[in-house]
Amino acid sequence: MEAKRDYYNVVQDAIFDAIQISLGLTDAEANAFIRYVSPSGESQPLTLAPDENRCYVRLGGIALSGVGSKDRLYEDVEAGVEKTIRMLDGLTAFLVFYGPEAMTYAQMTQVGLHEDTVREKLRMDGIALVDNSPTPVWLPELYNGNWLNRCDLEVRLYRMVEYTETLPAVQVVPEIIIRRDI
After folding, report:
1. From residue 32, how far is each of 24, 27, 115, 126, 159 by CA, in Å?
2. Are 96 and 56 in contact (CB under 8 A)?
C-alpha cells in the first residue's frame, strides 16, 4: 500500500507542475488555484466566490497491465535465475475547472500537456500521457441553487515499472495417463 501512496504523490506533483507550467502560474497562485480531492471520491464542499477560478484534481484507480507476469509458469529455466518483469501502471487524473474562465483554463491545460517542457517534466517523473488529445467537456453544475461554470478534463497517464525477481526452483513432473478401459 505504501508504494501506491508514493505513486499517487508522484502523480499529484507531476499534475500540479503540468497545470502550473501550462497556465503560467507562480507557486503561490498554483497553490491557491489547485485543490486535491481524495482518491476515494469523498466530496468536499465547494468554497468558491462567483468570480473565483479553481481546479480540483482527483486521481482514479491504478490499473496494472502486465508485460510479464508473476503467475506465469517458467519451464526449462534453472532455479535462481533472475528474470526482469515489466508492468505498466495506468492512472487517470480528473481535472475539474470551476469559475468564469473554466473552459479557457481547461483548454490551456490541454494544450500545455503537449508542450515540450511539460512532457519533459512528466518524463523526469517517469510518467507519460496515454492519449495525445484529452478533450475538455463543458458541464455547468448546479450547486446550492447557483449555476457554476465547470469544465472537466480527463487525463490518462502511465509509467513503466520494472523489477527483477529470482525464479524459484521448478520441478517438472512427467504426465501420466491412466486408462480405465484396459
Report:
1. 14, 9, 23, 26, 28
2. yes
